[in-house]
């Protein structure tokens, strides 16, 4: 095995000399002195253990051994150049499965708009939409899922997050609910008013590692009545609220 200390400059000199077949012209091409070029040629010959170039009427001719090394040297030089080139992402060529964990509200309000736009630019990507389950943060950390869309204001260390949607939460009741008349008359609802009616609430899966947003915690504290329906989903709430006297809390943009 050849033990070498070849540099990028050595390889560039070797490739240039193979192409130009002149020590003087190669040195000028690379802005080297003739003595430096001679030392490089000596170093190359010692490293590979063969002459590499022989003198002829037309200059320094590469030996068969040098010609065998030439494509490998070119490949290594291209690799050096790639080290300093920023990676280029071409969505049209991307192929992989994107796994997204989200609540049903996120799937309907966000992914139904985002996924078609991505498919238009990256037609070879596949998508898997998963429910929010236990150990969400752990699955994000290990790469078992790629993204999580969830109403939260803080995440665990090591998890990157970005705010993509803001929507205030509102109390929701059916049309004609007694609370509607109280609000129109008083322009407010008290805890005593709310406590008279059962409510429906959405609960974060235990062990998910995601804290619910503060505004929903505050809203739940203002629902002192009995929680009659607990749901892991937001979307069933409108139909349940419309058919009962339940009081709910929902994102305004849902």
From TrEMBL:
One Pfam family hit: LysR_substrate
Molecular function GO labels: DNA binding; DNA-binding transcription factor activity
Keyword Transcription regulation annotated: yes
Residue intervals of the HTH lysR-type domain: 6-63
Gene3D superfamilies assigned: Periplasmic binding protein-like II (3.40.190.10), Winged helix-like DNA-binding domain superfamily/Winged helix DNA-binding domain (1.10.10.10)
Highest rank taxon of the organism: Bacteria
UniProt keyword terms in alphabetical order: DNA-binding, Transcription, Transcription regulation
Thylakoid listed as a keyword: no
Similarity comment: family membership: Belongs to the LysR transcriptional regulatory family.
Protein name: HTH lysR-type domain-containing protein
Natural source organism: Sutterella wadsworthensis 2_1_59BFAA
